[in-house]
Specification:
The chain is α/β, with parallel strands linked by helices. It has helices at about 1-5, 15-20, 55-65, 80-85, 100-110, 150-155, and strands spanning about 45, 50, 70-75, 90-95, 120, 135-140, 155-165, 170-180, 185-195. The structure holds S-adenosylmethionine.
Length: about 200
């Protein structure tokens, strides 16, 4: 997976590659999918949702430019896999999932596997998790027409947000927004992706 799906497709950040190597993806998928855990594709995790393909997880984690002391918000915990990868690079990860069953399963899995710096909450991630804001990095693992305003508000100065934006048959653009000191945002389009929808009040 590391060589074929990540390095050969352009992932270069060693910390991301090490984290992807360290997290056992087979523990985040259903037993019947374990033989496909290291294929480069999404897999079902219940509630009509998916664990994202490894390349896209690595791409988003690299794109959000994490530092060791960073506080991260993830929207769309799903299986908890991306949260585990993020937690090996950053200081803390707060992750929000709208499906109660997925949030509970991810919380248990992350605890069992020892990812002690991750907290998972069931809720509407389009509203962020204001108690722990501001965040140095925000990763949104579901697509919407626009960046939810509460997420921009919860980003620290200098912070980065990575999210699939847009809708329609062509999927979304993966965008990176940066909050400048004056509270202005710059946006870069990184490439095409196809994510499940972000469903929520500010989505
Ligand atoms: N990062 C996940 C992983 O590693 O398994 C995969 C995320 S999956 C592609 C997208 C997730 O976003 C789904 O679990 C879905 O229920 C969740 N989601 C969609 N809208 C949401 C919202 N408003 N708040 C929180 N989670 C949301």
């Amino acid at each position: 997976m590391l060589r074929r799906h990540l390095v050969e497709r352009g992932i270069t950040d060693l910390r991301v590659l090490e984290a992807m190597a360290a997290v056992p993806r087979e523990r985040f998928v259903a037993p019947e999918c374990r033989n496909r855990a290291y294929d480069d594709g999404p897999l079902p995790i219940g509630e009509g949702q998916t664990i994202s393909q490894p390349y896209v997880v690595a791409w988003m984690v690299e794109a959000v430019e994490l530092g060791r002391e960073d506080r991260v918000l993830e929207v769309g915990t799903g299986s908890g896999y991306a949260a585990a990868v993020l937690s090996l690079i950053a200081r803390t990860v707060h992750s929000v999932e709208r499906h109660a069953a997925l949030a509970e399963a991810a919380r248990g899995r992350l605890r069992t596997l020892g990812y002690a710096n991750v907290r998972v909450r069931r809720g509407d991630g389009t509203l962020g998790w204001s108690e722990h804001a501001p965040y140095d990095a925000i990763v949104v693992s579901a697509g919407a027409r626009r960046v939810p305003p509460p997420l921009r508000e919860q980003l620290a100065d200098g912070g980065r947000l990575v999210m699939p934006v847009g809708w329609g048959w062509r999927g979304q653009s993966l965008v990176r927004e940066r909050r400048e000191r004056a509270g202005n945002f710059t946006r870069e389009k990184l490439g095409r992706v196809r994510f499940v929808p972000l469903i929520g009040e500010a989505g």
